[in-house]
Write a structure and sequence with these properties.
This protein is an all-alpha fold and 228 residues long. Helix content is 83%, strand content 0%. Helix 9 packs antiparallel against helix 10. It contains ten helices and no strands. It has one domain. The longest helix has 36 residues. The two termini are 19 Å apart.
Length: 228
Amino acid sequence: MLLNLLKDSLTFYRHNFVFLAMIVLPFSICVGLFKLVFNQSALPASDLMANPSIPVLLMLMLHPISQAAVILAIAASVDGHYPSLPSLWRQGLRLWFPVAAVTFLYAAAILGGLSMLLIPGLYFMVRFTFAEYAVVLHKQHPLDAMRSSWILSKGYFWLLMNGLLLITALIYFPALMLTSVLDKLQVAPLIGEFLPSQLFSVLGTFYTVFVFRVFHQAQSEAKTTPDA
C-alpha cells in the first residue's frame, strides 16, 4: 500500500509541480531575501532587528497562509479545479489563525514528546499530522482537529511514518548534503543559502501531497467502516 500511495503522490506532484511551486515560492522568496539581507546587514547588537529570531518569526507568520493555500490547491486539483493563486492566498489568509493555532499545538505536542524521549516525539508527530488538513478542509476548531487527527491516524501510523521517512531519505537528505557541500565551499550566500532554501520549500510540498493522499484514504475508509 505504501508504494502505491507514494507512486500516486509522486504522479500528482509531477503533474502539479509548477502550480504548487507558484503557491509557496512568493512566501519562501520573501523570507529568503529578508534573511539574506538580515544576515548581511551590520546592525548594532542592541538593535531589536538584530535579533536572529526575527527571520524565524517572519517564516512562522507566513507559513500558515502558504500551507493552507497548498492544502486547498491539492484538494481542488484532485477534483480537476485549479483556483487562481490570489484566491488561494486569500483563503489561506482567512485561515491564518486556526492553522497557526493547530501548528502551535502540533509543535507543542512534538516538543513535549521529544522531552520524554525521541520515540514519543515521533509518535505524536505522526498521530497529529492530519490536524492541519482537518482545520483547512473541514473548518474544524484546532482542538477538534487535533482530536480528529488522533482518531483518524490510528491505523495509519506505520504507513505515515515509513512514507515520511522514505520521502526524507529520497529527497531531503541529498538536498541537505548539497547545502553542506556549498557551505564548505563558502560560496556566495545567494547560492549557498538562498537557492537551497527555495528548493527546500518546493520539495516540502511533496510531504503535503503524500499526507493529503493518506488523509483522503483514511477518511474514505472511515466512512465505509464507521464503527471501526
